[in-house]
């Protein structure tokens, strides 16, 4: 380890952290990770293909699902090169520019997933609480504007703190806590004044992830109130059924984020392996689980996938 952090190490590069102490098992560990990345790629591409080729799925709900699948696909692609590179022995360090770029996309995609989940909650609210105006409210042009707003909200406002990372002086050992780059990880290594980045990042989290979570919760309070007002229990059950997949997606997204935050805040005494594992769960669990959830829970997607595979077998 001394050699790895010696002065001879390139001052503009950072050492990526794998599963410390398990280096001999990396070839075996790479197998489940390769499988996970393959499922992320194939699962989300399959969802996108089904929505693209099935005219009956050209509806607002499925357009938002396509946005979620694209976000998950990009999140998986944003970390595969460093995570698999470490496990396969191809790379050990990453340049500052590449690190900043990776951090930009990881955080931008996290904000984008949160925004899409909020939009999907709004979609469910309109569909259940105001069904007669559903098609007039969520028109194609409005959906396009929502998509562009999500992109701008996710990737524009994070530019200032990300650019600042380029001009910091990194005097501490250039060892990252994860197999990929995060904004807070680079701040930990900087010796410059990081107050702007710290406060700005906190405000971003409050105004995006936290605000989105509160609005999603509020939308489900309104949905629950509306559903309980329905006299028929069968209609109540059907209304709740349309929300189950979205609720699962919300939990799959927010639980890893909360867990990683808790580990960073209170788990400094924990093994580095725990930090690396939680980091990988944060980036891989939602992209892995979302296509499975929606393929199982949404009848239109489920039946179309079964029909697609039955045609392939025939």
Automatic annotation (TrEMBL):
GO terms for biological process: cellular response to lipid. Gene3D superfamilies: Rhodopsin 7-helix transmembrane proteins (1.20.1070.10). The chain crosses the membrane at residues 29-52, 64-91, 103-122, 143-163, 199-223, 244-267, 273-294. Its main location: membrane. It comes from the Eukaryota. It is a multi-pass membrane protein. It holds the Pfam family 7tm_4. One of its GO terms (molecular function) is olfactory receptor activity. GO terms for cellular component: plasma membrane. Keywords: Cell membrane, G-protein coupled receptor, Membrane, Olfaction, Receptor, Sensory transduction, Transducer, Transmembrane, Transmembrane helix. It is found in: Cell membrane; Membrane. Residues 43-294 form the G-protein coupled receptors family 1 profile domain. Putative odorant or sperm cell receptor. Belongs to the G-protein coupled receptor 1 family. This is Olfactory receptor. It comes from Muntiacus muntjak (Barking deer).
